[in-house]
């Protein structure tokens, strides 16, 4: 029996991609469970990943997406300072619920919009590299029991699905990532340009203020 269980247990395959360019990206995660001869359609699959300080999820954008049932995510912490730069931010733990892929009975996928934070100006490079590790794959089969021998219990305080009110038993799945990590390239300024940037900013501020003042004096009504 042990040999049969070991033969049926295979590592899940995880693919993680960062789509688009610049500060505003989409994190695409794909999972194929390594369960032989069984249908995972009754299971909930989630990807638990830790976002480093250089990446964040906009909770207001996320609330809009969840309101339209376009995604389902649990953020820890749930209060995020979207204006904080990278050097003042902290890690963010994300539990991303995945949708079944109709083309494969054991395949799941999900996308999440993420954003790069501003970094300190650099000395030479015009890009900062933010490393995103491969996520942990979690499975909860509340309606369909698969081979639990393939997985180990995981401590997750989150419901398996919208049908469950309280937490349920999640299992961590061993997996082999297509890539051990993903790299986000964030544009940064150069320190030697600081004087030029300050001068241009000051000039633009004075010019705009002058135009506003001129418009007020010309079209304003004063009693």
UniProtKB/TrEMBL annotation:
Membrane topology of the entry: Single-pass membrane protein
GO CC, alphabetical: endoplasmic reticulum membrane
UniProt entry tagged with the keyword Lipid biosynthesis: no
Record bears the keyword Transmembrane helix: yes
Subcellular location: Endoplasmic reticulum membrane
Pathway this chain belongs to: Glycolipid biosynthesis; glycosylphosphatidylinositol-anchor biosynthesis
Entry keywords, A to Z: Endoplasmic reticulum, Glycoprotein, GPI-anchor biosynthesis, Membrane, Transmembrane, Transmembrane helix
Similarity section: Belongs to the PIGX family.
Protein name: Phosphatidylinositol-glycan biosynthesis class X protein
Organism of derivation: Thalassarche chlororhynchos
The encoding gene: Pigx
